[in-house]
């Protein structure tokens, strides 16, 4: 049964809501987490879990990522659960001269912001990752990049939150609020109403829907990402690997649509960063191309597969 009151109501049972519930309940606040579907059934249950610093633009984004990365050094011990965190380093692989120049500038700016990142030539990249194609011109490399199991991480936060007294309700969507003098006093669900003065909107891509219930426009525009899961095969790579084209598309989504080149050779600043062709069938490594073309069965990682997980 829903409690009638809480210090804080957290909306969303993904990694962000779970983390908020954990950290708030550890600070002795009474917390109720409401999730409209299954726990970790949203984006957090359908992503690849890279803990990447190199992909972040200098500024608030990189600073937050660096602070977050520090937490991972002791998080597994603190949560007392295996979250499968591996600090194996990561690469951003470069295929063209334009990407090389753009990544050189990007990495220089990141270094100025305190990130440990190096630009490596093709030969050095292949020494680290022998299965990289001969066509690779180079890569940026950071030993700080890593990977975590995002579902294990969110569930560990949820369990930690529960142990500190948080109440967690899957399949309980927030339907509205009641206000008094422009302040929230109740959170409404089909299962009942909770009195509270504080709400954390951790509804991910649905955060704007929650905002609209309160007349607030939240400028989040969802962008679809997809993962392809192959049949199990022997490990091919030792560390995380992204393409410089992905980084280009990330900071200029319009390019992902048009596939055109538009590359400023000046130092990247503010909006725009650099841009590049996205979505080409680049052969970053020798084997995955074969793997992908040889008719192995692919499964989209679908968040619906993640329903039914309990904390
Ligand atoms: C294919 C793909 C790969 C990615 N890879 C990476 C990666 O490698 N590294 C990385 O850092 N990030 C990655 N991301 C991004 C990352 O997954 C997200 O930033 C992160 O999971 C967002 O977590 P969240 O808790 O904000 O949202 P979610 O996990 O989506 O959680 C929000 C929850 O809110 C719930 N909700 C919505 N409306 C309501 C309501 N009215 N009432 C109650 N609950 C509600 C939803 O059901 C959902 O479970 C990737 C994303 C995708 C799509």
The small-molecule ligands in this entry are: flavin-adenine dinucleotide
Assign the structural class, choosing from mainly alpha, mainly beta, alpha/beta, alpha+beta, or little secondary structure.
Answer: alpha/beta
C-alpha geometry: elongated
Low-confidence stretches: 258-283, 286-311
**Major sheet size, sense and barrel closure:** 4 strands, parallel
Helical content (DSSP H or I, runs of 4+): 25-40%
What does this protein structure show overall?
The chain is built from nine helices and 15 strands. With 311 residues, the protein is of the alpha/beta class. A hairpin with a 2-residue loop joins strand 9 and strand 10 (183-189). Helix 1 (15-26) packs parallel to helix 5. The chain is elongated, with a radius of gyration of 22 Å. The protein starts with 7 loop residues before the first strand and ends in an 11-residue tail after the last strand. It binds flavin-adenine dinucleotide. Flavin-adenine dinucleotide (FAD) binds at residues 11-17, 34-37, 41-44, 47-50, 173-174, 202-204, 206, 210, 225-227.
